[in-house]
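Note to self: keep these together.
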Amino acid sequence: MEKSYLVERLAAFPALGALPRDELEWLAAHGRLEHLTAGSPVTRKGERLDHLFIVLSGQVTIRRDRGTGPRRVIDWQAGDVTGRLPYSRMGRSPDENILEVDTEVFALHEDFFEEMVCRCPAFTAHSVHLMLDRARRFNTSDLQEEKMISLGKLAAGLAHELNNPASATVRGAKLLLNGLTDADPAVRTLGEATLTQSQLRAIDRLRSACAESGLPPEHSPLEQTDREEEIADWLAARGADPRCAAALAETSLDIPDLEALAEELSGDVLAAAIRWIAGGCEIRALAVDIERAATRIYELVDSVKRFTYMDNLAGPEVVDVRSGLRDTLRIMSAKAKEKGVTVTLDFEAGLPGVQAKGGELNQVFFTTKEPGEGLGLGLEITRRLLRQYEGDISVESRPGRTEFRVGLMASPGTDPPASWA
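Structure:
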């Protein structure tokens, strides 16, 4: 009764129903029906696979954890064949196989595989095709996941690189606003004072010197502290705000310059003039810092655009390998710093361009993982991309030195093939 029941259940699926009846009967005679509860594993990761399963009802989900949490990879529905397949080299389950709902499966132990190959050639051929299809599905999933992991690492590194200049920009903008507010009382005091042309020229000389002289000669931290304290003492002795010393000490202005101003001004007017001059020095320094930080952000964003070739989504074009390497190094600089790696770019003169899609060509990296953790997918992705453009990758390794060499065909009409190591 159970044998005929299993035959009918198997024959109900189009792919299996097309098989010879005697093969289905042989399978039913040597396998068994299993009722499994939702949530329980069919096989656990690393567990030995010794059964072929045909899902009769329900759903089996394969979940994989590559360090970012379990992720659904493939669902096996009613009529799908999974588990250990004839001729498969997969002896252990690489992932967790979890039941989403109550499920019925037909299970056939691997001890019957040798006989099955002889007695059920059609089903065996069907299983081999399924095995190849399963390998392609897993490979596609692995490649996609590897790309997403690489993209996540790239995004994290870029976010780290952008965070510093972005924070500097925000901090500088806030200090700039405070500096402008602090300068207002000094401006009012100077405006209310009746200053002579000689006094105005004395103030302008220091303010101009502050704007044009740039940074002072390089001092050690101790020397700079002594310089700031000397200026603070001078300011305090003349009733000016000693806090202005920090901004003045960052310029090339010195005590003789301040003495020249004190010969023209005194009292509150001198204090206001110094506050205004120091405020201008500080505001200019903050503006320079903001400009540098914003430029760094622009350069990183521009590098990402060039790295991905966002502005050119057309087909292959002549790509400058040198520019791609520079942009890639800029994008990956945070990761290099984290690992303590120093990267040097050394370009041969007259390096020709290559015909390729720049966004794809810039994906040629490799990654290293601990033994047993890597899948080799990074190199596989690299090799596939390179072969699209008649290129390839090779490796030479010996103790103390490992060299990957990438070769690409030069663009038509240019010099010999471009390559870098």
